[in-house]
Specification:
- By secondary structure, this protein is of the alpha+beta class.
- The strands form three sheets. A nine-stranded mixed β-sheet has the order 5-4-6-7-1-8-13-12-11, sandwiched between helices.
- Helix 13 runs antiparallel to helix 14.
- The N and C termini lie far apart (98 Å).
- GO terms for molecular function: fatty acid elongase activity.
Length: 492
């Protein structure tokens, strides 16, 4: 027995050493969020009802049908009066923005959020090891990461990545890049900067499918700091538990449902089709959730959902086994309606951070998973207060949750983001300590949620359209009281 023990001892020690090494390696690969800073635009860029009305009427290419569509879309968008817009557009230079205008817009967002982030964390730019910037439509040379490195004089060995064309879900993609790098680079600190420039990409044509983006997108941005240093774990606010990315670009309808193109008149803009909400978003989210659910929900909920799905779909025994195995592996595609199949996400998630891109998507996710208005409130209020700020939108939603003191230690947050392509990228966070910072919401959190979310555009749009019809009938035009704009004959 002694001889056998001596023979097995090296294998036992090696196994223990390998296990211990694996544990240390896993601990070093953890991704913790230290802080985030959302951009608070200056007051002189606020887009209230009067300003938005002037913008709508300033487009001389619109006919009555297009004007009605534009104003009705604003009314039903879920956006309030306190969103923000680039100065280039407010000053009427959207058709011919300069490169200087674009740099001024993005510099204000990048450097303001980064300055506040460095100040809040007391971590200097020289301590940053990884830098990821995501901005879809503007990719200059030198890159935006190089612009940041130059401004803050960061080290020459900082790992810099510039992501473009990733749409509204780019922030989660950037986080995935940082997480993957953390597996290789120990004791590192990383930053993700997420924002979008609007001034240089405002649609100036009359195609109704392309005017949609003008009604939703507003100024905003965010910088987030991450680390895998064990010494900084105690200062972290969130821990990344899981990321799931789904790319649906192989489907032609999904690829073309939201695409940056040129219209017949030569104007560039985002063309959005009805299949975005009705098909592409649903399909991408279903595939994504199928892979995510088994990793974030308790076993008993997955078993319950399995039997309910089998009962409702009428599967045979062989199909039942294939479906169950595929669900566990996260790879099996099925015809089971995950959105409507009774999956209870609340068994594994306490908070839902839905991308505030469009009201229809928020409504659809809420209905599909039977989420309450309390669950959807952060996303609805963010859309109302800030509009669609592209990839940074989910951080404004997180800020609302924190400002309302909802986030308690141990809670889990599901971030749900969608982007053109079409893609769905989700991540799950665990709250490391009770959070209560009012952050970018400090000046408005007490007024949310308001008693009434009805758009103040409602009365004005009815008045504008009726007034235009009267003017058209009598055959002359007069100076309108809303903005002093004189419409031309071809507008109607």
């Amino acid at each position: 027995m002694d001889a056998l023990f001596l023979c097995l001892l090296p294998f036992l020690l090696y196994s223990l050493f390998s296990l211990f090494k694996l544990i240390l390696q896993r601990r070093g690969q953890s991704c913790y969020m230290l802080a985030y800073e959302c951009f608070m635009p200056p007051e002189d860029t606020k887009l209230d009802t009067e300003s938005a009305t002037k913008l709508a009427l300033r487009n001389r290419k619109l006919r009555l049908e297009g004007l009605r569509f534009l104003l009705n879309t604003i009314v039903s968008s879920g956006i309030g009066e306190n969103t923000y817009c680039p100065r280039t557009i407010l000053q009427g230079r959207e058709e011919s923005p300069s490169l200087k205008d674009t740099y001024e817009e993005i510099d204000e967002i990048m450097f303001d959020t980064l300055d506040n982030l460095f100040k809040k964390t007391a971590i200097s730019p020289s301590q940053i090891d990884i830098l990821v910037v995501n901005m879809s439509l503007f990719s200059p040379a030198p890159s935006l990461t190089a612009r940041i490195i130059n401004r803050y004089k960061m080290r020459e060995n900082v790992k810099a990545f510039n992501l473009a064309g990733m749409g509204c879900s780019a922030s989660v993609i950037a986080i995935d890049v940082v997480q993957q790098l953390f597996k290789i680079h120990k004791n590192s600190v990383g930053i993700v900067v997420s924002f979008q420039d609007l001034g240089a990409h405002w649609y100036c044509g009359s195609d109704m499918k392309m005017m949609f983006s003008n009604c939703l997108f507003r100024s905003g941005g965010c910088s987030v700091m991450f680390t895998n240093k064990r010494s900084l774990k105690g200062r972290s606010i969130l821990k990344l538990k899981h990321i799931e990315r789904t790319q649906y670009s192989a489907d032609d309808d999904a690829y073309n449902c939201c695409i940056y193109v040129e219209d017949e008149q030569g104007y560039l803009g985002h063309r959005v089709t009805k299949s975005l909400v009705k098909k592409s978003a649903t399909q991408a989210f279903t595939v994504n959730l199928q892979a995510t659910a088994v990793k974030i929900l308790p076993v008993w909920e997955m078993v319950r959902f399995f039997f309910v799905s089998v009962r409702d779909s009428g599967m045979k025994k062989r199909e039942m086994v294939a479906f169950f195995v595929g669900l566990i592996l996260g790879k099996k595609k099925t015809n089971v309606n995950v959105l409507g199949g009774g999956l209870n996400l609340k068994t594994g998630i306490e908070h839902f951070c839905v991308h505030p891109g469009v009201r229809a998507v928020i409504d659809g996710i809420g209905k599909g998973f039977r989420l309450t208005e309390y669950d959807l409130e952060p996303s609805r209020m963010t859309l109302h207060r800030w509009g669609n700020t592209s990839s940074s939108g989910i951080w404004y939603v997180l800020g609302y949750m924190e400002a309302k003191k909802r986030l308690k230690k141990g809670d889990r947050i599901l971030m749900i983001s969608f982007g053109d392509g079409f893609k769905c990228n989700n991540c799950v966070w665990e709250v490391m300590r009770d959070l209560s910072d009012t952050n970018v919401w400090k000046d408005s959190i007490e007024s949310y949620p308001p008693e009434n979310l009805c758009s103040p555009f409602k009365d004005k749009t009815d008045f504008i359209i009726d007034e235009y019809l009267k003017l058209c009938e009598v055959g002359f035009y007069q100076d309108c009281s809303f903005g002093g704009v004189q419409p031309e004959g071809d507008v109607l």
